[in-house]
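Request: Show me your protein:
***
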Amino acid sequence: MVESNHGKFDLVIASRDLVRLEANLNLISQSSVLPNRVIWCLPPSILQDIEKVDTSRFPLSVSIFESPKSGQVHQRIFGISQATSEFVIFMDDDIEFGSLLFEKLLKHVVMSDPCVVSPLIFNLNQTPLYKNPSKITKLIDFVIHGFALKSLRSGRVGLSGFPKYVDLEDFKSPSFEVEWLPGGVQALSKSLFPTKNYYPFEGKAYCEDLFLSEIYKKRFVKLFILNTIVYTEVSPLQLNLKSFYFDFKARLSFVKSTNKSVIRMTLWYIALLFVGVFRK
């Protein structure tokens, strides 16, 4: 049963169009707590299709905005700037989630503020993104990514600039502190989110979650993954020239700005290329 609006958070979704709006509103309206407002933020020149959208049948206040600039980061920043609640939850438009997600995220944020929290992300086919490391993987983690052989890897970012996902077995309590949060879903106090562009490039935001997590850490904000699962389609790094180049360019900027190892990062890209060519 859906509870009354708690008036504590706005939900911000940056999207390329209005195609997924109705499906998202269906999921959101089934939540145990409802947002003050759903803010759907689009790139420029999309709103001509707004007359096709009817949100009146949903128990939600829905605002649709055009961001001055296109791109997920620009749209997210603009959408959050339009929020009027103390807390915000932002999410991608392709996340599948249960009715208790917002309640769990909001409860943890309110109790532990200042902090940022995310759910555990699984693939759409319900398989975890975390993979149990083999002996070879542990050796690679040591040699290339810079993790000590017996150190905790989950939720950490290697010296190569590549992060590790969290495993369900890591949870000894409802939350697990990390040093990096995936960008799919995050809940936080609105005042903690950067008001200016934090991503140094235009176009598709490769590695933007690493840049954002680093901003949180510089502000001494703790980051947590909660023991609650959402599902989305997570694609591995595409080995076509364009994707590979822009991912490398963005991660290189992150690695340099955080004093990590350009050599380790480059070695891993070479390894990815080699594996990609071998598999073909």
